[in-house]
Amino acid sequence: MGEVANKQVLLRGFITASPRETDLEFRVGRAELGVPDGSKAVLVKNLYLSCDPYMRGRMREYYNSYIPPFQPGSVLEGFGLAKVVASENPHFRPGDLVSGMTGWEEYSLILKTEQLRKVQVDEKIPLSYHLGLLGMPGFTAYAGFYEVCSPKKGEFVFVSAASGAVGQLVGQLAKLHGCYVVGSAGSQQKVDILKNKLGFDDAFNYKEEVDLVAALKRYFPQGIDIYFDNVGGAMLDAVLLNMRVGGRVAVCGVISQHGISDPEGLHNLSSLLFKRIRMQGFLQSDYLHLFPQFLDCIVEYYKQGKIIYIEDMTEGLESAPAALVGLFSGRNVGKQVVCVSRE
């Protein structure tokens, strides 16, 4: 089928601090528009790419994680939505829309197709939502809230980074479950979105609070039953002092520690003992057997207007480095997605 130009984003070298745009390189390479015979691989044209905090962990030289690091000089990879261009795999045909791990480039040859999933087009749901609401972040919210938090109607729920890709859905699911929900975010704009658009009972800007323990006591005078933690650090420490007996903490992310070479330790772990708190880390991949159930539930909620999803879209692969780096300063409002092509 011949060769074409292929825009790409590469990692220049391993990092030890918060990522910068200069840690990434944008270049134009070449792509062969074909698939090796008998390989069962697929060649895709990437349409949308997902920017996710876990990608920072893959930019450091650390091999003991659940997912290996990127290699210097290599194309970044992450969750994407793409159109199949060529295929040697009987499960995928040219023209199919798929979601799964792909390269940060215009065209990607995908050899490991086990986790690729066909996407059914629905004119009522934007295609890019398959990277957020109906993708990994949405499923993370669903599995974390229902399976890890074990919610009960009437409980008090706190969500950090609540306007992000995961937090915004956790809060709405908690409200639909009959819980009282407060979220934290890093700007007044985001606080307003939580309260006025996403239906949180209350919200606050953590950057304006000089005493997080006192702030949480103010918003939860009865204490917190469930904490959905996306940030770790000082916020988690403050929450532990405000938890109720029998509370649950779902550890989803530690974005406050992503720019720190020597992560900060916690100081209030004795609360786990005194208050019989269950704190559990999890990955959405632990619960993949629930994915069809998740899709049915969330699609129905969305079509009924019971949930809203906020997306922050940037145009062009050239914008991808800035979009990814912006996650770690809170520049994005909602789920950060890069549009590579709308074809």
- Please tell me the overall pLDDT: 93
Overall structural class, as computed from helix and strand content, comes to alpha/beta
The CATH architecture of the largest domain is Alpha-Beta Complex
CATH topology of the largest domain: Quinone Oxidoreductase, Chain A, domain 1
First and last CA, distance: 19 Å
Q: Regarding CATH, which class of the largest domain?
A: Alpha Beta
**What's the CATH H-level superfamily name of the largest domain?**
Medium-chain alcohol dehydrogenases, catalytic domain
Biggest sheet architecture = 7 strands, mixed
> Structurally, how many domains make up the residues?
2
Quaternary organisation: single chain
Low-confidence parts, pLDDT < 50 over ≥5 residues? none
Shape: globular
Q: Tell me the number of helical segments per DSSP (H or I, 4 or more residues long).
A: 9
Helix fraction bin: 10-25%
Rg over C-alpha atoms, rounded to the nearest angstrom: 21 Å
Considering the chains and any ligands shown, give keywords for the structure.
343 residues; alpha/beta; Quinone Oxidoreductase, Chain A, domain 1; Rossmann fold; 2 domains; seven-stranded mixed sheet; 15 strands; NAD(P)-bd_dom_sf; Enoyl reductase (ER) domain-containing protein; ADH_N_2
